[in-house]
Amino acid sequence: MAQKSTFGPREAPTLGSPSRALFGKMLKEAQLSVAERDFILEALRENVRLDGRGPDQFRSLNLSFGNEYGHVKLQVGKTSIVVRISAEVTKPRDDRPFDGLFNINLELSAMGSPAWENGRSNDLEAYVTHVLDSVIRRSNALDTESLCILKGVSCWSIRADVHVLDYDGNLTDAACIAIMTGLRHFRRPDAVVRDGQVIVYGVEERVPVALNITHNPLSVTFNAFNEGNNIIVDATRKEEQASEGELVIGINNGGDVCFLSKFSGAPLDAMEVVTKSNVALEKVKEINTKVDKIMQVDLARRAKLGMADESRAENDR
Amino acid sequence: MVEPTASLSTLNRADGSASYKCPATGYDVLGSVNAPIELPARRDALKPEDATIEVFVKPGNTTAGVGERYVEGILRSVLTEVVLGRERGYPRRGVVITLAIVGGGSVERGDSYLTVLPALLHTSLLALLSASVPLAMTFSSALLGVTKSGDIVRDPSAADAKAASSLHVLAFSSKGHLLLNESEGCFDFDTWELIRERAVSICRGAAVSGTGEDVAMGERSNDARLDGFVRETVEDRLHVDYAWKIESN
Q: What superkingdom does the record give (chain B) (predicted)?
């Protein structure tokens, strides 16, 4: 800072400030070559995608569960994600004494892509966190009031940790599916209030309870190409790089749109937004059915292992 | 003793990766290595002839805190000795090791981080091997706990570790040298000597344990040795990778 005064008044603040220079260059994903970009665009003009999918087709969804409840491994094509849900008892916020806490935590590490730096956030991280927050947290998919144990004194704090293991495009939708699946799969320990004392029962003492999920919203990301003539879902990393703009729609099984955004890129026809929200609804229904089926199989397997009561808990309400 | 399981090169984007599961402690660790990678800021000024090793530990369901920073420091100092950072292509470049604890219990705030350390060490070694980073040696590491009654237990569970009077993590290089010694709690030199002998027999088998004739009867057989486990994992992977070549011979 002392150095700055010696430059005098003529030093324009816009010309590379010293703090900027200290950060040096940022790591970046390898760029698409011109030929590769042209190839993707030309192929899309003929309605062909690099991996042979249709424009409204997701990559294959591979879902599995870990040993604990709420431990989800999801693969969408080559994008691979692990989500872990955890719960702990804390004090509720002073302005919301009846509400529990719910947080989504996404931290991109060098594991997912060499272009991401450990311990430093980047644009993608901020963007995905924002979408996830809007689609899942702010749409009240998890009923936070049901997490209250004793008004103003103690409540559950639910935490979803997203680990990106492999990044090959469409992080938002994949993370959305994984978090929602995790929340539905998770069981928290039972807690009761007796004489003003909060008692948390261990998993062995009492059947753990499922979270109260109000609806199942998922995000569907559309990528536009060739002046909005080609719009596709579930873009791979290469397709994302060649894309001219994207549209994100968060929608649930009932067709309620809870999030819609067009952050940047080329403009899109208003009619497209309407038609694409229909496509999004269809996709969300399709994915939710698929997830349900896999989750039922897993819960049935757990039931066989002598935990019959726990797997039934979700439908008891 | 249930052996740990591991597989190499499980990820697509990272240069090298390994997943490691230790059934005794329950930890499931995924490691990735990116090397050699260009460092974004000028962090190479201090050692222009050597590679910079960066270790990042990502806990499963909490935000990284002092515990992670502490264990990262230990890992960095061990791995700096192991990686040949002066080989062609490595000076002034980074070796970025990312370790995510994706399964099993998490280390509670204030609990000892030593319980995860062997799993983290093995994962990073396997990931480095998978990324073909030049190494001076391989190593194996063991976690031992001393109970209140003075018994030495191998791989104590989280609850046992909490109750233990002292915890020890020792690592031995493939040449048999003591590479790392981290201890926590109260113990005397005689106990430590017993611990060392036990750790040698776990990591390296009885052949090199020298004086320790009456310790660790269970770990005598060669296939139960931990350095053998690292070797076998890499052998299995090579067998798969070079199937085309082996078939044609």
A: Eukaryota
Helix, strand counts (H, E) of chain A: 8, 14
Rounded to 5 degrees, φ, ψ at A259 are -160, 135
- Token pair 């994903």 is found at A29
pLDDT tens, residue order, chain A (317 aa): 333 333 333 333 333 333 333 344 566 788 899 999 999 999 999 999 999 999 999 999 999 998 889 999 999 999 999 999 999 999 999 999 999 999 999 999 999 999 898 888 888 999 999 999 999 999 999 999 999 999 889 999 999 999 999 999 999 999 999 999 999 999 999 998 888 888 888 877 888 899 999 999 999 999 999 998 999 999 999 999 999 999 999 999 999 999 999 987 888 889 999 999 999 999 999 999 999 999 999 988 888 876 555 455 555 44
Q: Residue B134: what are its φ and ψ, rounded to 5°? A: -60, 130
Residue A228 corresponds to which tokens in the numbers above?
């909005």
Residue B60: which of A23, A113, A161 has the nearest Cβ?
A161
For tokens 């995924």, the residue is B30
In order, the DSSP letters of B158-193 are HHHHHH-SEEEEEEEETTS-EEEEEEEE---HHHHH
Q: Is the peptide bond before B36 cis (omega within 30 degrees of 0)?
A: yes
Gap between the Cα atoms of A208 and A187, Å rounded = 5
Q: How many CA atoms lie within 13 A of B54 on its CB side?
A: 25
Radius of gyration over alpha carbons of chain B, in Å? 18
Three-class SS state of B67: helix
Closest CA relative to residue A70, chosen from A167, A209, A170, A172 = A209
pTM above 0.90, yes or no: no
| Cβ contacts of B103 on chain A, cutoff 8 Å | 66-68, 71
CA distance A54 to A58: 8
Q: What is the dihedral angle through the alpha carbons of B42, B46, B52, B54, rounded to the nearest 10 degrees?
A: -80
Query: Other CB atoms closer than 10 Å to residue B86's CB: what's the count?
Result: 12
Which residue is it, tokens 């070796």? B95
CA-wise closest residue to B58 among A198, A173, A110: A110
Q: What residues are paired with B58 via a beta bridge? A: B100
Interface of A with B in 75-94 (CB under 8 A): 78, 80, 82, 84-86
Quick check: A143 and A68 in contact, CB under 8 A?
A: no
Give Cβ neighbours of residue B192 (< 8 Å, ≥ 6 apart). B168, B183
- Residues A222, A276 contacting (CB under 8 angstroms): yes
**Chain length of chain A:** 317
Kindly report the number of other CB atoms within 10 A of residue B228's CB atom.
Answer: 18
